[in-house]
Amino acid sequence: MLVTLNILAIVDFLLLAILFVYRKSATRNNLFLAFLMITPIFAHFFNTLIYLDLILNFPFALALSFLFNLLWGPCFYFYVMFSIGKRQSFKLLDLLHTIPSVFSVVYSLIIAFSPVDVQATIFSSIKTHPPFMLNLLNQIMMLQTFTYMFLSWVMLKRYNRSLKHLFSDIHQLSAIWLQEFIIVMVFIGMLAFIPIMLFPQIETFMIFLPIGSTLCYFFLVYKNISTPIVFSKQVQELLLLAPETEVEQTPETAKGQSHEMIKQYAEKLNAYLLAEKSYQNSGINIKTLSVETGIGVHHISETINKEFNRNFFDYINSFRVEKAKQLLLSPEKDCYTIESIAQEVGFNSRSTFYTAFKKESGITPTEYKNKCRT
Length: 374
Description:
72% of the residues lie in helices and 0% in strands. It contains 17 helices and no strands. The N and C termini lie far apart (62 Å). The relative contact order is 0.08.
């Protein structure tokens, strides 16, 4: 049963890796995903060999297991960076991320080239009480993985916040699901950590490792396929403007000298959007609004933040929601579906429209329509 469970996990991950390598839209990100799928295979293979007392026939399995396990964290970190456009290429210094895996491989190779009786003693002890050095490497691996996930979480949080300062439609750019994946990983990791620490026998690893990794990976694959992050050159250029949208308390603002200017910008922005109805363009972003109004990107962001206490995303959506309210009650639009009205006012996603509408009105579009007509 335990062997079958691990073999099934190996087959699943291998098939998923092949899927991403030969996927029609093959990109660097898909290759990262394929590598992430491969990494647990060697841990499952090693554990199975230990359980079946066959490890002496494949002593190098330990080196492969540690090598790929210690590369998982850096690989996921780079997958996140490339996914959100933080990086477009590798640098020589990136090789520093491989140092822990190199040390683990050296230690594993020392064991692999040791006399057979020494290998037998070490590998047999793994079943019940692993040697100190192996325990230490396992702890380093877990610490490293959680560190890279934390760094990825911070990076994703900043990225998702920047999107709302730059774009009015973030449906195809949002990386919220990657943050959700990290939460799932940590949650399942903590659930598995307790029994593994209490019962460090090989049987415990044989049960929790394939189940936990399979759940995490199928979540990652499903989200990657169902809600991929779609990038373009224009999006990457806009992301470079993110620092300009950071609003800080300036001496002028503190003295109240720029308050009138912010008021003027606010009036100009409101008047322009109401007159030109630019918010109905689903692709409007802070740069296009800056060009159309002649107001700098930083000033637009500062005005929206300080005068309206919003970000660009919520500011534009507030106009869309108000327009949607008018159309929902219009007799001429009575035969229109709520989804078609959402598209007409500038929303590309039904879920985004419902979320924005409820945020502005406290009720859903359907509830609003029924409430106003009773």
